Amino acid sequence: AVTYRLGLQLLKRKRDALIATLLLGANFSHLLFSRLGFRAISQPLFQGLTVLFLIEGMRRRRLKKSAWEWFATAGFFLGLTAHTYLAARLFPIVLAIPLLIFAGLWFKYGKAWAETKPLILHYLLTGLIGVITLFPLLYWFTIHPEAFWVRIEQVGNTSAGISRWEGIRRAASMLFFQGDPYIRFNIPGMALFPPSLMLFPAIIGLRLAWETRSKQINEIWLGRLIMVTAPFIMLLPSALATSEIVPSNLRSIGIFPFIVLPIASGLGWMLDYAINTNRERRTFEMIFASLLLLFLIGNVLFQPILYFTQWGPSQEAFLETEGDVTAVANFLNSVETDRPILVSTRFVPHPTLAFYVDGYNQLPLIPNGQTLVYPAGERPLMIFPTSSPENDWIASLPGERETHFAQNEFEAFTTFVPAEDFPSPQQPVSGNFGFAIEQLGYDLETGKVGETITLRTYNKVLGNPGFNMVPFVHLEDHLGNRWGQLEQPGYSPANWQTGDLFVQQFEMPIPAGLPPTSQYTLRIGWFDGDSGHEVTRFDVNNQFAGAAFLIEDVSLAYGGQRTLDIPVEQPQDQDFQPGLTYLGGQVANAQTKYFQGAQLDFTLWWQADSQLTSAKIVTVLEQGDLQIELGQVDPAGDSYPFDQWQTPISLIDQHRVQIPTDTPPGDWNFNVYFVKAGDSPKPLLSYQFFIDELDLILEEPPSSNPVGVNFEGQLRLVGYSLDETTGELELVWQKIGNTDQDFVAFIHLRNQDETCCVWQADRPMIASAARPTSRWLVDEYVIERFEIEADLTQLPLVVGVYRPGNGIRLTIDGSDTDQLQLLDFKR
Are 747 and 788 contacting, i.e. CB atoms less than 8 angstroms apart? Predict the structure, then answer.
C-alpha cells in the first residue's frame, strides 16, 4: 500500500504505481522476508512511510495547507526505522544527500527567506521527533557504547574476508545478475530481479525519472532524487559486510520499496511503446515489444511460483529455517517418559527451542551431538535433529533408535536410548579437576597431518563447580610449540549432578605441514569460561598434579603434500638435492638483542617430491673469523631425518637452539646451513643480533642456614636466610644437572596438623634475564626471595620443587620425601 501511494506521488501514473506494487508483492526476497519472523521486514515499511509523509508534507506546504503533523509523522517513522535492523543506520544518508542537493538548488533559484524559514522549521521538527522516537535506543547505546560498534566491526573486518571493492561489486551484481548464495534467504545465486533483462527497464526508468523531473524545485523533484539515491546507499550494508556473506538479501532489504519504482516506470514506458506501435501499424516493433514485455512480466510473476514450488519445499530451506528443531520442540511438548532427556543442537542456547519448548530452562543441550551423557548413571533419551546428528562413535553404540519425520515427510530427528552399561575407555586414567570432574579414561584415534585427530574423554561428575567449566585440548610438539587449540563446550556444568557420567568427543584439526612423528603431546584440561583461569588437577591421592592431563608420545600419520602458507619470500637458490625444494625460513619473535644462554627459535619450510638422502641442519654463530657451532640436527627439532621423509610432502621444520652462556658479548651473525656429506654447506637463513652479557652468580652467596640438599640430581638447595620479624625468606639454589625442564618452587606454611596451608607460594624458578631452569648454567647459583605474610610461630615451613606440566614433585636424593622442612620454624 505504501509503495502504491509512493508510486502515485512520484511516478504520477496509477498504472505505473500498480506495476510497482506488483513488482514488490511478487518479489521473491520480499515475499520470503514477509513470511519470516525477522524484525528487518519492518525496515522497508518505515522507510517508505518516512518518505511518503515527508513528500506529502512538502506538497501540503506548497498548497498553503497545514503540514506540521505530516512532517512530525515523518520524523516518527524515521525514528522507528532505526529500531528495525542494523542496516537502517544508513537510511538518514538516503534523506540527507537529496535534501542537501535540494537545499542548494533552492537557494540557487533565489527562493525568498520567507519561503525558506518555514521549510527549515518543518525539517527541524522532523529531526526532533525522529530523535525523540529514537531516544530509547540512544539511551541504550549511551550505557553500552560497545554495543553500537561490535556488530559493525565483526561484519566489516576486511582482514577476515574480501576487499571493500569486491564487496561493492558483488552487492551491485545482486540486483540483476548474481544474488545471495545463502539458502536461508534465497534460492542460492538468484538475483533480486531475474532475469538480467530486468536491467533494461530499470535503466529506462532512471532515464525517465531524470527527463521528466519537474522544472520546479518541489516535492516531486526531491522524491525522485530519493528514489534514485536510496538503492545505491542501501546496498552498502551488504557491500561493506566483507567478512560475512556478500551479497546478502537480508542486509540489502533497505533498497525496498524504492528500487521497484524506476523499474515500474520503465515497464510502463515499454507498455506505452507496444500500444503506440500497434496504433501506428508497426507490426514488427509491436510484436517484439509485446513479447519482451510479456517475458519480463512473466519472470516477475514466476518468482512467487519459485518460492512455493522450489524454495519452500526444499530440504535445505527446511533445515536452515529450523524446521527439524521445531519438530523436536513439538515432540518434547508431547512425549511422556521417565528418562532424562537431552537434545543435540548446532548452538547453545537455542532460540527456537527456547520459544517453543515448555520447561526449556531445565533441558540439557548437547552442542553438535559430540557428547554422550548418562545423567546420574541412568540411560537417557537423546534427541538428534537432522541438522545436528549423532557423531559416528555414538552411532556405533548399541541401543534403541527411532527416526521421526516432519509433516512434509522430511527426516526431522532421531531418538536414541543407549545400552544399559556406560561405555568403557580404551585407556583408563585417574585424577580429577577441581574436585568437580573425575577422569575415567580416554580413547585416542591416530590422526593424519592436514586432517583431524579424534579424542574422547570419559568423565564422572563429583559435584557442581559453581562456575562455567569448559574443556580444552592442546596439541603440542616436543619443543613446546602449540599447533592446535580446541575449547569445546559439551555437557553444560549448569546441568551437572553428582554421579553424572559423560563421554565427550573432540575433533582436533591438525595443521598441514606438521612432521608425521610420534613426539607430540595432547594437553587436556578445563578452564573457567568467564575468567579464563585453568582448573587445578589432582591425582589419585588428591595431591596437586598441574593444570592439565598429558597424553604423551602421540603419533601423527603422514597426510601427503598440501599447500602451505609461507610468511616469507621464497629464496632464489633452492637446489639442495634432487626432489627437495627450500621454500623459506625465518627467526621466530626476532629481536635485536639476546642474552647469553638465551633460546632462539627458527622455522624452515620445505617441499619434497621424491625420496631424499641424509643431510643435516647446522646452526652456527659467526663473528668475523670466530665461529661457534650450536648443533647439527635433523629436521623437525632433530626428530624427522631427511632420508625418512614420506614423499611427496610439504613440511614446517621447527628448531630451537641455545646460545652458549660463555659466548663473548657483541654483534653476531646467526647462520643456518644445509649440509650433505661430500658437499659444501648451503646457506638457508642468516640473522644478525647483539649478544649481551648475563648477570651470573658463579660463586656461592652467603646464607644464614646452610642446607646442601639435592632434588633428583637436578637442583641443590644450598641454604636459606630468614628475617623472622618481616617474614622475608631468601633461598639459594644451584643447578647441578643438565636438565632441559623448567621447574616451580613451592613454599608452604602448614597448619599445626600438617595440612595446607596458612600461607603458600608457588613460583616458577627464574634466574637473571628471565631464564627458567632449563636455561640455567650448570653450577650457576640463583637467589629466590619471598615475603611470608603470616605469623611464623610454631608452624612448620616446607620447601620443594615440582614440574608445572603435571605437578609431579622432585624427591630429595637418598629419601622418598618430596619436600624439605625448614626446622628452624618449628619451635
Answer: yes
Q: Are 404 and 412 in contact (CB under 8 A)?
A: yes
Q: Which amino acid is at 570?
A: Q
Residues belonging to the chain: 827
Determine the Cα–Cα distance for residues 668 and 689; give it in Å rounded to an integer: 6
> Nearest CA to 200 among 259, 264, 260, 266?
266
Among residues 205, 182, 501, 478, the alpha carbon closest in space to that of 340 is found at 501
CA dist., res. 638 & res. 478, Å (int):
10
Spell out where 647-704 has E strands: 649-658, 666-675, 682-692
The cell numbers describing 177, all together, are 545478475
CA distances in angstroms from 513 to 135, 562, 603, listed in the order given: 55, 7, 12
For residue 769, give the DSSP letter: G
* Average pLDDT of span 437-442: 96
Q: Give the Cα separation of 607 and 12 in Å (integer).
A: 70
Helix (H, G, I), strand (E, B) or coil at 49: helix
Enumerate residues 6+ apart whose C-beta is below 8 A from 210: none
Dihedral class, residue 589 (left if φ above 0, else alpha if ψ from -120 to 50, else beta): left
**If pLDDT is split at 50, 70 and 90, which confidence band does 113 have?**
low
Q: Is the pLDDT higher at 564 or at 158?
A: 564
In terms of Cβ atoms closer than 10 Å to its own Cβ (0-12, 13-18, 19+), residue 722 is buried
Q: How buried is residue 775: exposed, middle or buried, by Cβ count under 10 Å (0-12/13-18/19+)? A: buried
Q: If we measure between CA atoms, which residue out of 301, 323, 313 comes closest to residue 411?
A: 323
The C-alpha cell at 654 is 621447527
Q: Tell me how far apart the alpha carbons of residues 539 and 545 are, in angstroms, rounded to a whole number.
A: 6
379, 394 contact by CB (below 8 A)? no
- Amino acid 415 reads T
Cis bond upstream, residue 648 (ω within 30):
yes
Mean pLDDT of 474-496: 92
The Cα–Cα gap between 801 and 544 comes to 12
- Cell 532421531 appears where? 414
C-alpha cell at 548: 592439565
Q: Which residues, other chains included, contact 576 with Cβ-Cβ below 8 Å and sequence gap of 6+? A: 582, 615, 674, 676, 682
d(CA 231, CA 253): 10
* Contact by Cβ (8 Å): 790, 747: no
Task: Look over the chain and give the mean of its residue pLDDT values, rounded to a whole number.
Answer: 88
Direct distance between the N- and C-terminal alpha carbons of the chain, in angstroms, rounded to an integer: 94
Give the DSSP H or E segment for 783: strand 781-787
In percent, how much of the chain has pLDDT > 90? Answer: 52
Name the residue with cell 509503495: 3
Largest Cα span, the chain: 123
Which residue, chain included where needed, has cell 646464607?
A: 703
Q: Residue 694: what pLDDT?
A: 86
255 secondary structure, DSSP code:
G
Q: Which pLDDT score is estimated for 825?
A: 40
Which residues have C-beta within 8 Å of that of residue 132, sequence separation ≥ 6? 75, 79
Question: Which one, of 101, 10, 115, lies nearest residue 52 by Cα?
Answer: 10
Q: Are 716 and 778 in contact (CB under 8 A)?
A: no
Neighbours of 553 (CB within 10 A): 10
Per-residue confidence (pLDDT) for residue 121, from 0 to 100: 86
Distances (CA, A) of 802 to 515, 545, 810, 812, 815: 31, 9, 6, 12, 16
Q: Which residues contact 697 (CB under 8 A, 6 or more apart)?
A: 780, 781, 782, 783
Do the beta carbons of residue 40 and residue 256 sit within 8 Å?
no
Q: Give the integer Cα–Cα distance in Å for 783 and 405.
A: 71
Contact 38, 249 (CB under 8 A): no
DSSP class per residue in 137-195: HHHHHHH-HHHHHHHHHHHT-GGGS--HHHHHHHHHHTTTT-----TTTSSTT--SS-S
Helix (H, G, I), strand (E, B) or coil at 338: coil
* Bond prior to 349 in cis (omega within 30° of 0): yes
